[in-house]
Amino acid sequence: MKRTLSTPPSLSDAERQASNCGLDIRKLEALLEEIEQNIIQRFLSEKYKIIFYLAATGLFSADDLAEMFNHSQKNLNADFNKNLGSHLKDYLELDDSDRLGITSLRRILFKKGYCVDINDDESVRVLPTRYAENSQSEQSFTVRQN
């Protein structure tokens, strides 16, 4: 079945998409669980968890998510902030001047370390090799002056 913007994905699909976009799902699940248990003392609906993961990918605008969940954009932003955003702001220890919403969620999660570290040992070993190769290439070129 082809999914359109008007068809929201399942929670597992949203988590998988967030994972594919470089987010650390285990850390995000722990964050949501902590918020549920210690701050709001109730369970978040599956809908807001899906919105959270999709917003965290940075692939969807508030308009896209509003269409997907049959909300007006204004109501979706307000509902997101009321049900999750304000609690995330407290838990992530953001300043009052920091704005946390659907469009800024990915940037803030990235700054707070909720993305997977892609600097594995193999990638780090390639860099010195490339530096040496680039230096050799630069030496082999002659600069012509006009």
Radius of gyration: 21 Å
Count the E strands: 0
**Main beta-sheet strand count, sense and barrel state:** none
Number of helices: 7
- Write the element-wise H/E pattern from the N-terminal end onward: HHHHHHH
Oligomeric form? single chain
Structural class: mainly alpha
Mean pLDDT: 79
CA-based shape? globular
Fraction of residues in β-strands: under 5%
Q: Spans with pLDDT under 50 lasting ≥5 residues? A: 122-127
Helical percentage = 55-70%
From the N-terminal CA to the C-terminal CA, the straight-line distance is: 63 Å
Structure description:
The chain has 146 residues and is mostly helical. Helix content is 62%, strand content 0%. It is built from 7 helices and no strands. Helix 3 crosses helix 6 and helix 4 packs across helix 5. The longest helix is centred in the C-terminal third of the chain and has 20 residues. It is globular. About 4% of the residues have low confidence.
